[in-house]
């Protein structure tokens, strides 16, 4: 061990004399400090969560550090060969294993000069701002596993290549291998033609995200599995280093030394194979689950993937009340008891009730005060009453069911729903509670740009036929904050009660809640200020649209970026609470969309789009939107409409907005007819304005 240590010290002296190798870790550290300062000084808050920002840059910088450390290991072996030191080694009383082990240890300590500062910077950053203190140790462990094992692996690989390849081609071979590994990471962002299972071979865990480690699934997940994967990588790096010792200077091999090295290789190979098989099987099971769901929810009509809006629930009944008692008996397991109160509201008589409940739940019981027969086939729970119910009659049902809830998207790389000891992700579209009508829980489409041949929509939702009163009780106390679209009951933090016109979802994670009047704003602490600004802007938009078009838009009671898991209350109806009000309006597309383009131009002057200043004259705006990327001349009717608008006084935007509102109301009064002529209506309003002025 003393000789290994002495050789390591010598290598560090060589590194200290090289300005390039000495400066690289310092530049790496300063770059991270600059990134953090840049984030904290950004007043717009456009960089997302701190950890989303951190790991987004981490995925770019870590592979570069990995390549540099591998090249260093290659360099310190090749240097002896080029300088003639290799011949002197043969005469020294130093074993070849000791010689290479000292070099390997020096290269590994150089890798620590990259890893340790990153972990320290990350820990100090999180501790200073306190937005992730609940998972600080998880994040630090994850960073150590990912970067430490990856650098260790590539250092060993560089050492082996330096021993085997005895010329400068070694410096080309290592970057080529690095490029193959780096392609596995970036393939998901390109065409995706490489089988997703190949991502498991990368020296850092690429199997739990597609684009960004944190953003894709709202945080790190299954960290122990990442630890296992990286443990296999670290053990494999030791195996490669021992193999390098075994194949180097074979003419100096001693039987005893060779046997010891072979025994170490065999001892290391066993955990690599066993751990690798367990890790690969877990990833393969996720991909198989994704394949299975894709086959179930396949859609033949390709045009359906471009359809926007929400599905319509068809049922003779309306859900009046839903009471849920939830237990989580194990990881990704949900056991529930449900009490439903339904009203038959559509027909004079009806005996058929259809509910949607995920096929992965096993029904334990279903009872009612009325005689009935039921069947749970696929996602459809069909109930047939022995005698039909009359209009406005009620039906009470009691259900008990249990099953698994984990599901995945993006070729199995992203978590869509799950339950763990520290997090809950249960979107409405999973149908983890009985939902009215027959519903399709997801959609998968053929896609020739991905290896598995299809892709799945992240979510698919339905417009509920009306508001339902929900009572949700969590039987087990949760450590983290839990979010539902209904507020917590004052009696207990584990009971949530309230009415919702958009169904239920449950999310547990790091979040903060603020109140703006009756509005709840819930989001990650890093995103809260941005969310508050967004809500303030949307309230101004709602007020403007109500005044402009005479609408009755109401702000939603809950605003949260977490709603991306389960979209709700984006309904295109002014009787529902809304978010992003302008984007849900169905603006009239009549006479080559002239009225729509005019309204958009007026609206952009009231609420400019980020990063784009509104065009001052209507003609330029019309030509920009009408061209759609191609050089298209305006038609005669369009030119007449543009000329009529340009006759108006553009210095008085309030007057222009009022005129646009009158045009929109005239379109509504015409019955939203496609034959509505905005040019004729505009001329009539201009004449009326002129006569009023006289």
UniProtKB/TrEMBL annotation:
It comes from Paenibacillus plantiphilus. The chain crosses the membrane at residues 20-37, 57-77, 110-128, 140-162, 169-185, 228-249, 261-280. Keywords: Membrane, Transmembrane, Transmembrane helix. It comes from the Bacteria. This is ABC-type transport system involved in multi-copper enzyme maturation, permease component. Coiled coil: none annotated. Pfam families: ABC2_membrane_2 (PF12679). The keyword Transport does not apply.
């Amino acid at each position: 061990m003393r000789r290994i240590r002495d050789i390591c010290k010598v290598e560090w002296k060589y590194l200290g004399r090289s300005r390039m190798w000495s400066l690289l870790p310092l530049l790496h550290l300063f770059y991270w400090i600059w990134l953090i300062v840049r984030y904290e000084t950004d007043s717009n808050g456009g960089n997302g969560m701190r950890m989303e920002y951190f790991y987004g840059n981490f995925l770019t910088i870590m592979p570069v550090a990995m390549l540099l450390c591998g090249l260093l290991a290659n360099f310190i072996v090749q240097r002896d060969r080029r300088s003639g030191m290799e011949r002197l080694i043969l005469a020294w009383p130093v074993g070849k294993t000791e010689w290479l082990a000292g070099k390997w240890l020096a290269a590994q300590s150089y890798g620590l000069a990259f890893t340790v500062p990153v972990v320290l910077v990350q820990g100090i950053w999180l501790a200073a701002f306190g937005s992730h203190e609940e998972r600080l140790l998880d994040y630090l462990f994850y960073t150590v596993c990912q970067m430490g094992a990856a650098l260790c692996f590539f250092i060993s690989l560089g050492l082996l290549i330096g021993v085997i390849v005895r010329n400068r081609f070694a410096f080309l071979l290592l970057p080529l291998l690095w490029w193959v590994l780096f392609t596995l990471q970036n393939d998901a962002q390109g065409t995706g033609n490489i089988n997703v299972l190949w991502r498991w071979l990368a020296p850092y865990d690429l199997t739990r995200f597609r684009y960004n480690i944190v953003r894709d699934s709202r945080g790190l997940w299954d960290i122990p599995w990442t630890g296992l994967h990286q443990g296999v990588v670290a053990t494999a790096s030791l195996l490669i280093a021992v193999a390098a010792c075994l194949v180097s200077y074979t003419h100096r091999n001693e039987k005893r030394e060779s046997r010891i090295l072979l025994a170490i290789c065999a001892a290391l190979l066993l955990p690599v194979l066993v751990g690798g098989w367990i890790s690969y099987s877990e990833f393969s099971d996720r991909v198989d689950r994704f394949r299975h769901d894709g086959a179930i929810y396949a859609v033949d009509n390709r045009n359906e993937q471009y359809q926007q809006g929400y599905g319509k629930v068809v049922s003779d009944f309306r859900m009046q009340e839903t009471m849920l008692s939830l237990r989580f008996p194990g990881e990704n397991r949900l056991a529930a008891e449900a009490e439903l109160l339904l009203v038959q509201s559509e027909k004079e008589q009806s005996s058929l009730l259809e509910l949607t409940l995920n096929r992965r739940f096993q029904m334990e019981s279903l009872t009612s005060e009325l005689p009935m027969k039921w069947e749970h086939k696929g996602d459809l729970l069909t109930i047939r009453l022995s005698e039909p119910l009359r209009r406005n009659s009620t039906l009470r049902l009691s259900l008990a069911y249990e099953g698994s809830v984990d599901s995945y998207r993006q070729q199995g790389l992203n978590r869509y729903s799950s339950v763990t000891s520290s997090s809950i992700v249960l979107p409405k579209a999973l149908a983890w509670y009985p939902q009215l009508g027959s519903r399709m829980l997801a959609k998968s489409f053929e896609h020739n740009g991905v290896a598995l041949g299809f892709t799945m929509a992240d979510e698919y939702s339905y417009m509920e036929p009306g508001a339902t009163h929900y009572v949700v009780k969590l039987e087990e106390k949760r450590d983290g904050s839990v979010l539902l679209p209904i507020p917590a009951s004052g009696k207990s933090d584990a009971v949530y009660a309230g009415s919702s016109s958009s169904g239920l979802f449950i999310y547990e994670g790091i979040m903060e809640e603020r109140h703006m009047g009756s509005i709840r704003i819930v989001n990650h602490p890093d995103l809260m200020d941005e969310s508050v600004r967004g809500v303030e802007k949307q309230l101004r938009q709602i007020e403007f649209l109500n005044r402009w078009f005479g609408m009755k838009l109401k702000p939603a009671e809950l605003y949260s970026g977490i709603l991306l898991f389960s979209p709700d209350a984006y309904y295109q109806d002014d009787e529902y609470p809304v978010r992003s009000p302008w984007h849900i309006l169905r603006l009239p597309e009549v006479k080559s969309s002239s009225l729509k383009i005019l309204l958009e131009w007026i609206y952009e002057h009231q609420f400019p789009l980020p990063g784009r200043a509104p065009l001052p004259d209507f003609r330029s705006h019309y030509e920009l939107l009408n061209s759609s990327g191609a050089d298209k001349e305006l038609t005669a009717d369009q030119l007449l409409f543009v000329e009529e608008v340009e006759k108006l006084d553009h210095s008085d935007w309030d007057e222009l907005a009022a005129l646009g509102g009158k045009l929109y109301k005239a379109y509504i009064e015409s019955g939203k007819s496609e034959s509505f002529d905005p040019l004729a209506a505009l001329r009539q309003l201009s004449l009326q304005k002129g006569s009023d002025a006289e």
